[in-house]
Amino acid sequence: MTAKTPGFEAMLARLVGLPSVSSTRAELDQGNLEVINALGNWLEPLGFVTEVIPLPDKPGKGNLIARLGSGDGGLVLAGHTDTVPFDPELWNSDPFALKATDDAWFGLGACDMKGFFPLAIEAASQFRRSQLKAPLILVATSDEESSMAGARLLAERGEPSAARAIIGEPTGLTPVFAHKGIMMLSICLQGASGHSSDPDLGNNALDAMHAVMSELLSLRQELAAKNRNPAFHVQVPTLNLGCLHAGDNPNRICGHAELQIDLRLLPGMDAEATEETLRTRVEAVAERFGTACSIRPFYPPLPAFATDPAGELVKSLTSLSGQPPRSVGFGTEGPFFQSLGMETVVFGPGSIDQAHQPNEFVSRAQIAAGREILGACIERFCVRG
Ligand SMILES: [Zn+2]
To answer: How far is the CA of 226 from the centre of ligand 1 (A)?
Structure first.
């Protein structure tokens, strides 16, 4: 006999109906406690012991760890409870009201990634605690779409512990063993404004920024020449000049300039050392131009992620899905779970093409196949142990 859940569709409808946008823009940012409370209420009747870990300094936000069974080894099924902000006018239906069609479910977060939780709960409900030799742990985090504060907190606290983790981000049920690291920086140069008729009346921050940009393009070339990984679609690290804000008028010397950049480093590259090199070189240019320089990250860098493609979990997911493991271009919480000592693979239903888009959906076929595969993984790593 298996324990009862409200069913996949009812659970997904409830989760989609609970707004949990996370954003670096404070006016858009929302909590996630209602989402993790709903998950806890479904998991406890199945025998899971739940623990809510509030995020310090972020009221209304927290992580959920729900454990079935105890001991060494075992499997974590992990996902994030937050969604990105949305454009209501681009949606054909209410983003918070789950719409079911013959092929799919539509709603904000249906694909990325509220759909993973009812899928994991349905898969877990086939097993009783007494059957498990090793624990099955469901983890629901907050703030993946903004600061990754939820997963960072887990890594700092050193929990949960298990042998393996599946991060259920939408990969179309293909095992993902690697992604790049992400770092976003703001570079500000402060010169002095003055009348444009005489350059000596000020110090042009745009002139200095022009030289900084040249320096960054050289650095980009050097990084690409030294680092290459054929597992990636873009095989080299990238450095993107994203936006530039500077000055105010053609007849004024530009007093201030800000450049925002994004760096994506390959697994194995040292993020701190790369940032330090960039900092030293940009500051040297700024000093040459006599401009003050400040460089600040928008948030702590997301480490690159790479797991052994020959690991047990990668091999199991490869054979169960029939898809060879691959790398992806987006970042995940994978590196934080890996830092807890788990063999970590990103694997979940739905396509990243639907994530962060209006009319986001997850297909019924992906959910049905995902339920089978997660059930088989629980059997393999928790029941057989
Ligand atoms: Zn996601």
So the answer is: 31
Distance separating alpha carbons of residues 209 and 120, to the nearest angstrom: 50
CATH 3.30.70.360 fits 181-297, yes or no: yes
Q: Write down the CATH number for the domain with range 8-179+304-383.
A: 3.40.630.10
From residue 336, give the alpha-carbon distance in Å to each of 82, 143, 213, 280. 17, 13, 32, 28
Q: Where are the domains of the chain?
A: 8-179+304-383, 181-297
- Average pLDDT for consecutive 10-residue bins of the chain (385 residues)? 82 98 92 98 97 96 97 97 95 97 98 98 96 98 94 97 97 97 96 97 98 98 97 96 96 97 95 96 98 94 94 98 94 96 98 92 98 98 94
Gap from CA of 222 to ligand 1 centroid (Å):
32
Task: Say what the pTM is.
Answer: 0.91
Residues with active-site annotation = 82, 144
Residue 68 three-state SS = strand
Q: How many Å lie between the centroid of ligand 1 and the Cα of residue 112?
A: 5
Q: How many Cβ atoms from other residues are within 10 Å of residue 40's Cβ? A: 19
Give the chain's largest Cα–Cα span: 86
